[in-house]
Amino acid sequence: MQLECTAILFDLDGVLIDSTTNITRHWRQWAQRHGLDLAEIMRVAHGRITIETMRLVAPHLPVEEEARHFAAVEVADTEGVITIAGAPALLASLPAAAWAIVTSGSRDVATARLQSRGLPIPKIMVTADDVIHGKPDPEPYLVAAKRLGVPANQCVVIEDSPAGIAAARAAGMRSVAVASTHADHELEAATAIARQLDDIQVDTARDGRLTIQIAPSC
Question: Which whole number is the average pLDDT over 40-67?
Fold first, then answer.
């Protein structure tokens, strides 16, 4: 599979870094404090901003206050965050003006996690702080395209969650799903599926156009 575009929009967790251990620990602590079911939280949390997850699982709580406290804890604790294989080389191969990160986390949390792994902070990073509606709403990806100055149909999204794939599709963007956290049948709305980030290679033409090559599944 080969896709051509002007810009690539990356999700963060599950695509460039793996914060599963870290995130699960924080949600477990929060669930225990409020007597909630961790499994139910994790079922809906992936790809969603924290406050929306809290609204779904605990609408009786003061979620604005809870989300602020949760983010502060996440910023202070990056233990267990790891770099996904292929991320440093892939980002290094891209022109600085041709990519962005679009994450459901806060800006402080995203920055702390990227810095903890020595990964670059992009010029454009759209976080939960920048939008009203998080994924699966298209707003985060549309905001990123606007800030990059690139038409939505010239952006390709690299995602790992059904919510993120749905957001990309609703924004009129093509997407490559990395099958790191979900089964193929949950990602079938994507334009293409890569088994892992290492299977994605990007070449830049002289005119700045990007060619994304996805290795065939075995």
Answer: 92
Task: For the chain, give the number of residues.
Answer: 218
CATH T-level assignment (fold) for domain 20-76: DNA polymerase; domain 1 (1.10.150)
pTM of the predicted model as reported, rounded to 2 decimal places: 0.87
Q: Which residues are catalytic?
A: 11, 13
Instruction: Determine the pLDDT at residue 1.
Output: 85
Residue 2: the pLDDT is 94
- Pinpoint the alpha helices (H) of the chain: 20-34, 38-45, 50-57, 63-76, 87-92, 107-116, 139-148, 162-170
For residue 118, give the amino acid letter. Answer: G
- What CA–CA distance (Å, rounded) separates 142 from 195? 26
Domain with CATH 1.10.150 in the chain: 20-76
pLDDT for 217 equals 61
Write out the CATH class of domain 2-18+81-214.
Answer: alpha beta
